[in-house]
Amino acid sequence: MADSTSPVTPAPGVASIASPINLILFSLFIVLVYMRLRPGSAKSKAVLPTAPPPTVFKIFTPKQLLPNNGLDGQPVYLAVRGRVFDVSPGRNFYGPGGPYANFAGRDASRGLACGSFDVEMLTEDLDGPLDKLEDLGAEELEALRGWEERFLEKYMVVGKLVEKGHPEADP
Questions:
Q1: Are 130 and 168 in contact (CB under 8 A)?
Q2: Within a domain: residue 27?
Q3: The domain containing residue 142 runs over which residues?
Q4: What's the structural domain count of the chain?
Q5: Mean pLDDT per 10-residue run, the chain (171 residues)?
């Protein structure tokens, strides 16, 4: 008969539930559950992106369009055939330092039609009449149409470009 004072040993191959590895795993589980369910701190709260301010369709003169060139945090706008496009999502191309930066805040119609990004393609007199593009050939007009379609697919139209003194222009 077994002595009541002798320790009871488990059968070979049977482990105790209170083994050190089980205690460590259980503790880790408790910590993970606590971390998941605890009240959120400022660090753990998700930050949702804020919506950009609403864009209102606006009438621009060349002088009013000029500040929208991407400098000092401004949006990047450019005009094609009287439509003003917000090309800010393409800031790498149209913003400061980009290959098309000359067109930012300007009427880019002639330069796009001629495939030239030179400053000479831009209208110098911002108070003068808009470029009517009457001297462009069929190929240049087709190229301009292609650019215009691309801009319409990719970018939002935010305004209309009119010359100074136009009835729709602000004084």
A1: no
A2: no
A3: 58-161
A4: 1
A5: 60 71 90 83 64 84 95 93 95 92 94 88 86 94 96 96 88 67
